[in-house]
Design goal:
alpha/beta; five-stranded mixed barrel; two-stranded antiparallel sheet; binds guanosine-5'-diphosphate
């Protein structure tokens, strides 16, 4: 299965005649940069559109309505309701959406840099809170033999029914399985720096300058900013939305309650706690603490949950 890139399609800057009336057309935002966006219409045409000021929050993955206005200018007039939205805290700007309608987050971890259950937990919390299906991608599996302790740590996540894929870009293993898991979904890659996200994206989307997010070379529409996010189609169905900003998004804007609901086994147990707003710290009749004591909830996960709460 190969990836199909939207950038190879020629872009209809002014619709060349056919649709010059002011009727709304539905499309998918495949790139967003400054006050413009590239929108793929349902018939496959790609349009560069201006954005109304009030629609500045448009992001890749959004379904939008656009209209051709005077002078053949195409304008996005509204955003259709989103199924999911991935937010990010941007310095001096607050919480902003970075991608819409994503339904699968590929969380990339590796043995080098050091495998961190804390960071993995944070991404899982983000995915659970955004109601987006997480997949753990353990990359650099070719290095696993030097880190025998990691297998036990990974087992905790497999026991929680999180899908876990082992990949190696160097040995080209696990890549076909990853492609299959990504098929029919709109995916993003996240994970700390150095785990191999760029290497994976470059392998999955050959010809894309994933390192910079650069997409200008064959789009036919001139140069985009190198930090633009971009949606790519999978040839077998499904998409990948990628940008440096998405790959390293953080949890800084999360609240205490979000952590409790982001640990799925804690959330599940919390329904049996005496208090509905139980934070599972020192409250009486706390089912979470009881399950930790009985080894039904992994104590490492519980300790990391407590640490996240105290950092908030
Ligand atoms: P990113 O910061 O997550 O985008 O990580 P990069 O893709 O830039 O990779 C960081 C380093 O890890 C590079 O030197 C890659 O060549 C290396 N790397 C990536 N994937 C693998 C892998 O599967 N195995 C090994 N041994 N090294 C890898």
């Amino acid at each position: 299965m190969a990836f199909k890139k939207v950038k190879n399609r020629s872009i209809d800057k002014d619709l060349q005649g056919a649709t010059k009336k002011s009727t709304s057309m539905q499309g998918l935002v495949v790139s967003r940069f400054g006050a413009e966006a590239d929108v793929e219409l349902e018939d496959g045409r790609l349009l560069r559109c201006h954005l109304r000021r009030k629609l500045e929050g448009i992001v890749c993955g959004d379904q939008v309505l656009c209209e051709v206005q005077q002078g053949s200018k195409t304008v996005v007039v509204s955003i259709l309701p989103r199924k999911t939205v991935l937010d990010r805290l941007i310095r001096y700007q607050g919480v902003k959406p970075v991608a819409a309608n994503v339904d699968q987050i590929c969380i990339v971890v590796s043995p080098e840099p050091e495998f961190s259950s804390t960071i993995l937990d944070k991404y899982l919390v983000a995915a659970e809170n955004a109601h987006i299906f997480p997949v753990i991608v353990f990359n650099k599996s070719d290095r696993l033999q030097d880190y025998p302790e990691i297998e036990q740590q990974l087992k905790v996540y497999a026991d929680l029914n999180y899908p876990l894929l082992m990949t190696s870009v160097i040995e080209n293993t696990g890549i076909e399985a990853l492609k299959q898991v990504m098929q029919e979904h709109t995916n993003v890659f996240v994970g700390q720096s150095g785990v191999g996200k760029t290497s994976l994206v470059n392998l999955l989307l050959p010809g894309t300058d994933a390192l910079t997010g650069g997409i200008s070379e064959t789009s036919g529409l001139g140069t985009h900013t190198t930090t633009a996010s971009r949606l790519y189609h999978l040839s077998g169905g499904g998409n990948v939305i990628d940008s440096p900003g998405i790959r390293e998004f953080s949890l800084e804007h999360f609240k205490k309650e979000d952590f409790a609901s982001g640990y799925r086994e804690i959330f599940e147990a919390s329904h049996s706690c005496r208090f509905r707003n139980c934070l599972h710290t020192s409250e009486p009749a706390c089912e979470v603490k009881a399950r930790v004591k009985n080894n039904k909830i992994d104590s490492g996960r519980y300790q990391r949950y407590l640490k996240l709460l105290s950092e908030e």
